[in-house]
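Run log // design_07
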């Protein structure tokens, strides 16, 4: 008499388990929109094997990037200091954390991070890998000042996130590691490659005389000599993603890369930022000391400070700089502004 019930129960378990297997969600691979110049000039972007880009992962990362739950008091998100309309900066010398405290570094812009072949992030290179970089601001007491365990608890208790994580990563159990994986996926989609100068290189537009002369000044080792650190028409990232002492100070309060490596020869070195989108990212330098592009250009022209770790590329430091004429300064600025990508800051895929 009991056997039919046993058979029925076994059939029920088999059917239930089979249906559960059918419900397993497979994320959809995400296809990066790589600009033509990047495809022509650069190797493929760096995507970690353990964090491939997916439609679900990118969408989740974007949601997290704009979510104030990641801060200790629910008042700040990543986007609070990295605004899409400002090329993912905040245009402040120093950003205020949730408790009103200020750091000592300027907010770096976020774009073209998938081509950071050095894989070191932040002004001083302290974070190795984009996933690792996203961990620190959340817990930093002068930034978002949150406890990761409490952040994870908030996300786990939400009505949306467990399902979104299940779809993106195959688990509804949230932890800090997969939160930062999702954010890193979104950040790798932030690609800027449609400035006037990009279009010029694609023969889609022409430069003004001032812009062309400014580019010549930028590339001329006897004049601006800027291309060694900040790229060229053959490096559309417009940075070498390396660390240099560019003659800001004779002595150092902030050791920069040297504090990370422990090597005194690295003291005073900071990451070369991309010179794309400078129209949106003032103030400039790691400490935001220069409010305008004119001040930046004047620094390299007349304001170099010699120190024990000055970069050999600062060849004319003994003369204080390269001493550009007023016209060359003006034209150099015109060229730099030709690297402005307005499509990037207005891209709806990057907006909340």
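design_07 sequence
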């Amino acid at each position: 008499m009991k056997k039919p019930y046993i058979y029925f129960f076994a059939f029920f378990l088999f059917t239930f388990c089979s249906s559960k297997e059918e419900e397993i969600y497979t994320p959809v691979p995400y296809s990066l929109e790589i600009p033509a110049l990047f495809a022509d000039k650069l190797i493929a972007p760096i995507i970690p094997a353990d964090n491939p880009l997916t439609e679900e992962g990118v969408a989740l990362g974007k949601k997290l990037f704009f979510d104030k739950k990641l801060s200790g008091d629910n008042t700040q998100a990543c986007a609070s200091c990295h605004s899409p309309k400002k090329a993912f900066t905040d245009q402040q010398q120093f950003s205020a954390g949730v408790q009103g405290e200020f750091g000592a570094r300027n907010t770096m812009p976020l774009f073209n991070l998938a081509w950071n072949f050095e894989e070191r992030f932040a002004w001083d290179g302290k974070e190795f890998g984009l996933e690792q970089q996203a961990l620190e601001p959340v817990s930093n007491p002068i930034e978002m000042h949150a406890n990761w365990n409490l952040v994870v608890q908030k996300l786990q208790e939400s009505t949306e996130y467990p399902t979104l994580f299940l779809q993106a990563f195959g688990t509804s159990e949230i932890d800090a590691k997969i939160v930062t994986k999702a954010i890193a996926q979104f950040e790798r989609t932030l690609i800027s490659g449609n400035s006037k100068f990009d279009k010029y290189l694609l023969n889609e537009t022409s430069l003004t005389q001032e812009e062309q002369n400014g580019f010549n000044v930028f590339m001329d080792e006897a004049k601006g000599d800027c291309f060694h650190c900040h790229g060229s028409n053959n490096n559309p990232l417009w940075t070498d993603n390396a660390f240099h002492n560019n003659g800001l100070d004779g002595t150092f309060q902030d050791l920069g890369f040297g504090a990370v490596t422990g090597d005194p020869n690295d003291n005073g070195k900071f990451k070369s930022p991309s010179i794309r989108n400078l129209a949106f990212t003032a103030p400039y330098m790691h400490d935001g000391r220069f409010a305008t592009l004119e001040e930046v250009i004047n620094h390299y022209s007349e304001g170099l400070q010699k120190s024990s770790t000055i970069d050999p590329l600062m060849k004319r430091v003994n003369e204080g700089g390269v001493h550009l004429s007023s016209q060359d300064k003006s034209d150099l600025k015109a060229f730099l502004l030709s690297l402005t990508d307005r499509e990037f800051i207005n891209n709806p895929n990057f907006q909340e």
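The chain has two domains: 36-191, 196-345.
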